Amino acid sequence: MTAEPFYLWMTRHARAMGWDLDDEATKTLRVWAAIAETNGLDDAQTAQIARGLGVTEAEVTAAYQPEMRESAMREIRVQPGLAALDADDERPR
User: Fold this and answer.
1) At what angle do helices 57-78 and 23-38 cross, to 10 degrees?
2) pTM, whole model, 2 decimals?
3) Alpha-carbon gap, residue 59 to 80, rounded angstroms
């Protein structure tokens, strides 16, 4: 993945907003990043993060989606039946 990891993206914006990134704050951002990577964020979560970081909801979504998609593809590739399907999909036609 070439995009900035969502956790680092959030910490960069938090610092720009003047957050004190103490232990509790970094743990909270790590939890948000884990949720975003595994399940994505719902509208309320996205709005909360956007308000806290001083960015738009679209920016939050754009920041976590590449990592979420990469995580989903890793999950797909470890499933035996889906791995075979993926290999077949990549076969030249």
Assistant:
1) 60
2) 0.73
3) 35
Q: Which residues contact 27 (CB under 8 A, 6 or more apart)?
A: none
Tokens standing for 46? 């996205």
Per-residue pLDDT band at 2 (split at 50, 70, 90): very low
Q: Which residue type sits at 66?
A: P
Note the pLDDT tens digit of each residue in 57-93: 999 999 998 888 787 777 777 776 766 666 655 656 5
- Helix or strand or coil: residue 57? helix
What's the burial of 84, exposed, middle or buried (CB within 10 Å: 0-12/13-18/19+)? exposed
Distances (CA, A) of 52 to 11, 25, 47, 89: 11, 12, 9, 42
Q: Which pair of tokens denotes residue 77?
A: 């590739």
